[in-house]
Amino acid sequence: MASGATAFLGSASERLLPLSLPFRFFAAAVVFHMAAWVVLALGANDLPDYAGGGGPVLAAIHLLTLGVFTMSAMGASLQLLPVATLQGFAAPRLIAGIWWLFNLGSLILALGMYFFWHRAMAAGGTLAGLAILLYLWLLLGNLRRGGALVAVVAHGWLAVAALLGLLAVGLALIVTQEYGIFADAQRSAVSHMLVAAYGFMGLLAFGFSYVLVPMFALTQVPGQKWALASLGIGAIGLVIGLFGAWFGMDLCAAIGGCVGLLAAMIHLGLMVQALRERMRKRLGPAFILIRLAWGLLPLSLLAGIAWALDLLGARGGVIFSLSLLAWLLTFLLAILQRIVPFLASMHAAIAIKHRPPTVTALTAQMPLNIHMYCHCASLLLLGVGIIWSQTLIIVVAALIGLVGAGAFAWFFLAAVRRYLAAVVSA
After folding, report:
1. Within 10 A of 399 (CB to CB), how many other CB atoms are there?
2. How buried is residue 117: exposed, middle or buried, by Cβ count under 10 Å (0-12/13-18/19+)?
3. How many domains are there within the chain?
4. Distance separating alpha carbons of residues 250 and 272, to the nearest angstrom
5. Looking at residues 47-51, what average pLDDT do you find?
6. What is the pLDDT of residues 343-383, one digit of tens each?
7. Can you give the pTM of this predicted structure?
């Protein structure tokens, strides 16, 4: 096995959280994933020409960004970051409390957005914000104690900074709906989206890729210098893009996108090189989605550049948003389908000394196959429905996405059931 993957596995086994902690975050993400497709179907008529404001589309976006993306990021980082820093978390009750607060806050916020209830948005945003601050307090305490994987820790530091900015702008946007804090709320919302997708979630996705992809493919961890170069260039591009978006300087925003594209290509080059040197030849369906996500990442940046230069017409913002969310959702679901049985198998190995279940034994392949086909079909149909402004196609896409999300929930429940059955019968 490659040295980087070996180090990760050895360190991970020593710093495991109770399985119920990361899995409760993943379970919530699975439920929010299904809810997002339902709400999107209900708001299908508004999607092609959506330009901001409350309603089902905004609620569906936040069910994804908060309920799926951030929820999964919390669960994964709370388990994986201690491996990178060689420092464990010793706050299981606080982590459980964060989960309750963030679940409740995200649900209330989404309901407020759906029904245009400003007080519900304010209450939900406050609860979710408090959960995020507690989560950041845990992460900062872990990050400042050092780390063995420098590139991963560096991505973590910048992700923390992005999340703080994301929280501040998000809460201000809620207040702005009633008191008009921002002169141009739409540009502020675009900046909020950029920080969320390319800042917080993007940085975590890049950082943990340098550990997870080598671990799953059995290959060497990419060189730290190039990973840090990608991080630095990406941070510069994000700052330039945010400056342009915030102050209405479209050419500046496009330049930021070009710089970000360079950072993405460096990162993707490192990933491709790692796969070429892998020891595991058969990577499984998850890597089909990972490769799809790698294709959607530069596509989202190109769509953002084209939108900034007004090359996509009236629906440019929706097309950019779709490509952005599609990249993150595809990558996240691919990683989750590998992390879930992997963590379950590690806990089973601790609980069962004699022949614990393998990752393969804990993985239900049929629902993952269904999910993969449904996920790809739903994204394709969503794009077609938006470009042609066909509500029926968008509804069909959302329903297919819901079937895929249900299949992913089937896979998750099967992994939990198989783990419990193995432990009970041991």
Report:
1. 18
2. middle
3. 1
4. 32
5. 91
6. 999 888 888 877 888 999 999 999 999 999 999 999 999 99
7. 0.94
**Containing domain of residue 271, as a range?**
3-425
> Structure tokens of 153?
């820790």
Judge contact between 410 and 367, C-beta under 8 A: yes
What CATH number is associated with residue 260?
1.20.210.10
**Residues 198, 304: Cα–Cα separation, whole Å:** 12
In the numeric block, which tokens belong to residue 217?
């493919």
What pLDDT, in 10s, does the model give residues 188-247?
A: 889 999 999 999 999 999 999 998 999 898 888 888 899 999 999 999 999 999 999 999
Residue 292's closest CA among 329, 319, 250, 259?
329
Residues 6+ apart with CB under 8 A from 70: 102, 132, 200, 201
Q: How confident is the model at residue 85 (pLDDT cuts 50, 70, 90)?
A: low
Averaged over 124-135, what is the pLDDT? 95
* Three-state secondary structure of the chain: CCHHHHHHHHHHHHCCCCCHHHHHHHHHHHHHHHHHHHHHHHCHHHCCCCCCCCCHHHHHHHHHHHHHHHHHHHHHHHHHHHHHHCCCCCCHHHHHHHHHHHHHHHHHHHHHHHHCCHHHHHHHHHHHHHHHHHHHHHHHHHHCCCCCCHHHHHHHHHHHHHHHHHHHHHHHHHHHHHHCCCCCHHHHHHHHHHHHHHHHHHHHHHHHHHHHHHHHHCCCCCCHHHHHHHHHHHHHHHHHHHHHHHHCCHHHHHHHHHHHHHHHHHHHHHHHHHHHCCCCCCCCCHHHHHHHHHHHHHHHHHHHHHHHCCCCHHHHHHHHHHHHHHHHHHHHHHHHHHHHHHHHHHHHHHHCCCCCCCCCCCCCHHHHHHHHHHHHHHHHHHHHHHHHCCHHHHHHHHHHHHHHHHHHHHHHHHHHHHHHHHHHHC
Give the tokens for residue 338: 């590998």
Per-residue pLDDT reduced to its tens digit, 392-426: 999 999 999 999 999 999 999 999 999 999 988 86
Residue length of the chain:
426
